[in-house]
Design goal:
Layout (H helix, E strand, L loop, with lengths): L21 H12 L11 E6 L2 E7 L12 H20 L2 E6 L9 E12 L4 H10 L16 H13 L3 E4 L3 H19 L2 H8 L29 H6 L3 H13 L3 E7 L4 H20 L3 E4 L7 H10 L5 E9 L12 H4 E5 L9
Parallel strand pairs: 1-9
Antiparallel strand pairs: 1-2, 2-4, 3-4, 5-6, 6-8, 7-8
Helix pairs in contact: 1-2, 2-3, 2-9, 3-9, 4-9, 5-8, 5-10
The chain binds flavin mononucleotide.
Flavin mononucleotide binds next to helix 2 and strand 7.
Length: 355
């Protein structure tokens, strides 16, 4: 049986316990969920196993109350972890049933979704393809090559977003891109002007020492660092927006694709849809040899989010801004182990409402 203390980065497909009871299968599969992306790498998820069922909770202690005051990015991250779990379950030969509550539960552990292991089945080649990228996907903040992305890959990305209940606007014209870059720079300016923003970010900036299992390590921040520095004291104390904005603008300008992912409404259910769609798109991009990262500043500030809408002529709700392209590989970020995020393992209970 796999140890609860195994680093999820070390998970090996060949170790899947085919003959073990469901709760042991989940112990293995949950390691793939832990590799999902999350803002500042806070990993805001907790899990509970009940026999064939896994419950996913948001961990309110890891909620970023300044940069994500409405819990939107927290739900998106949890939902990305859920998608990884679904894909891993399918890859190892089981269909899933899911349940998503209509509203977020109360803190400290807010129920986000449940998944039940159903009957054995053969998943699609597409699911296998997505699975192959889970352990390799990483946020890549290097400058991308100018090499264009093949049209069929872009089409796939747009179609897959629509299937997931979201829309994608790819910003092609120079005018649109310039307008978006201005918003990103303005986002950096407003965020760094806030001591509360800097204080929160400083709590998640990691230095060069190894040994952290969460947060933003120096090596992962590439040439365009989110924090501009590895030092929490500096982040907390100085307004570094000019340096930060210069880097973010370079990242955005150089990306062959700059795309906004959005929804038609803005409820926790929409955020859940965004998380799964985002993760599907990221996994598909990585499986296709592409790299991606985020420049979400304008969406994290309500005034700029509205301005973004008018720039892209949308009446909906922008949720994420992604840059996609070809580039040098980026370092992998650390993860907490299952021992850190598993509330408990219990026998199966009666669960209704699955679909
Ligand atoms: C909802 C969400 C928002 C994010 N926003 C940003 C962002 O604005 N800028 C950025 O550089 N990275 C952003 N990230 C990426 C995280 O920093 C990254 O996922 C985390 O550090 C873990 O690293 P990994 O993606 O390489 O596993 C975001 C991730 C998520 C899920």
């Amino acid at each position: 049986m796999i140890s609860l203390y195994t680093d999820p980065r070390m998970i090996q497909e060949k170790d899947f316990p085919h003959e073990a009871p469901p709760h042991e299968k989940w112990r293995f599969l949950l390691n793939y969920a832990l590799l999902a992306p999350s803002e500042y790498n806070v990993q805001p998820w907790l899990f509970q196993i009940h026999g064939k069922v896994v419950e996913l909770y948001a961990d309110a202690d890891r909620h970023l109350s300044v940069v994500d005051s409405d819990q939107r990015e927290m739900v998106i991250a949890c939902s990305a972890a859920f998608l990884n779990l679904r894909i891993a379950l399918r890859h190892f030969g089981y269909r899933e049933e899911t349940y998503v509550p209509s509203a977020l539960g109360p803190p400290p552990h807010q129920l986000i979704a449940k998944i039940r292991m159903a009957e054995p089945f053969q998943c699609s080649e597409y699911d296998h393809l997505l699975f192959s990228a889970i352990t390799r996907r990483t946020t890549n903040r290097h400058i991308f090559d100018e090499r264009p992305i093949p049209a069929e890959i872009l089409e796939q990305i747009e179609q897959r977003a629509a299937v997931g209940g979201c829309w994608v606007r790819s910003l092609q014209s120079d005018d649109l891109r310039t307008a978006l870059e201005e918003l990103i720079v303005e986002g950096d300016r407003q965020q760094w002007a806030s001591p509360a923003f800097r204080e929160e970010l400083a709590r998640w900036v990691r230095g060069r020492d190894a040994g952290f299992s969460d947060g933003l390590p120096a090596a992962a921040r590439g040439k365009g660092s989110i924090a501009g520095t590895n030092n929490a004291f500096v982040v907390r104390t100085f307004d570094l927006w000019r340096a930060e904005a210069w880097k973010t603008r370079r990242l955005a300008t150089g990306a062959p694709v700059l795309a906004v992912l959005g929804t038609i409404s803005d409820t926790p259910g929409d955020w859940f849809a965004v998380g799964q769609t985002m993760e599907r798109l990221l996994l598909y991009a990585y499986a296709s040899g592409l790299q991606a990262s985020f420049v979400n500043q304008p969406i994290e500030l309500p005034g700029l989010r509205q301005r973004l809408n008018s720039i892209i002529h949308s009446t909906g709700y922008p949720q994420l801004i992604l840059r996609v392209g070809y580039g040098p590989p980026a370092s992998l970020t650390p993860r907490r182990t299952l021992a850190d995020v598993l509330l408990e393992i219990q026998p199966e209970q009666e669960h209704g409402d699955f679909i």
